[in-house]
Amino acid sequence: MHHSMRSLVPVASVLLVALVLRLFALSGEMGPDSTVYAQYAWNLLHAEFSLDSGSWYAHRLPVFAPVSVVYSIAGVGKTSTSAWPLLVSLLQVAAAFWLGRRLFGTPAGWIAGLVLATLPLDAIEATRLMPDVIFGAFAGIAGALWMAGPSGRRTGLGAGVLLALATVVRPYALLLLPLFVVDAWFVDDRRRMLPWVAAGLAIVVVPLLSVYALETGDPLYRWRVVSSAYSSGVMAEGSAFEFYPRLL
């Protein structure tokens, strides 16, 4: 018992540093994008949300869907809006520590965790409801599981699910998949995990495509909206605060 508690001290100390810096950087700032995601979380909580939207903001579900749960518990506010990205950011720091320790020992874990914990931009963005920290955490933890997790079904499934969630936030997360395949070519244990990674992807993607098909009539509606938005101008909700009067 004492040994297991002592083994948690290094990662707990790194997480404490990360938490203090992130709370210090907590400004309560709600820029246009953050407010859009917060509005969608509010809409989801009050059953006023629809996937049949031409805005790419509405289709980054992992960014704002958990926030609606936080709103249902703690109410709507700047602090509750920051809780989800803060939690994900701390998980990312813990994953960096775990990866370093798993590959090269505890000193490397300390270095990896502290570097990520003390990066100024990460500390600032960790309390803003934006895709960056959510995407980085999901993709980063998926990569860490693939590289250093124990070979097996659960590791493959976990990496696949997290990779799928990162892809829902930003599609280019799928660029990790060919890297997994190339790496698996050289490592037999990881090669055996590839089918489980594919299964983890399917656990997220298949239900998501089904929901889009039911609600919009097009299972690929989300991908069409997001891909077309890269060449469009400013979204209406990103340029006018009156788009979200209830939240304000």
Note down, in words, how this protein is organized.
With 248 residues, this protein is an all-alpha fold. It is built from 13 helices and no strands. It has helices at 2-24, 32-45, 61-74, 78-104, 106-118, 120-125, 131-148, 153-169, 176-186, 188-191, 194-216, 221-229, 236-239. The termini are far apart.
List keywords for this structure.
single chain, 248 residues, mainly alpha, 13 helices, disordered C terminus
**Low-pLDDT residue spans:** 234-248
**Which structural class do the helices and strands define?**
mainly alpha
Work out the helix count: 13
Tally of DSSP β-strands: 0
**Could you give the distance between the termini?**
49 Å
List the helices and strands and how they pair.
Layout: H1 2-24, H2 32-45, H3 61-74, H4 78-104, H5 106-118, H6 120-125, H7 131-148, H8 153-169, H9 176-186, H10 188-191, H11 194-216, H12 221-229, H13 236-239
What's this entry about, in short?
The chain has 248 residues and is an all-alpha fold.
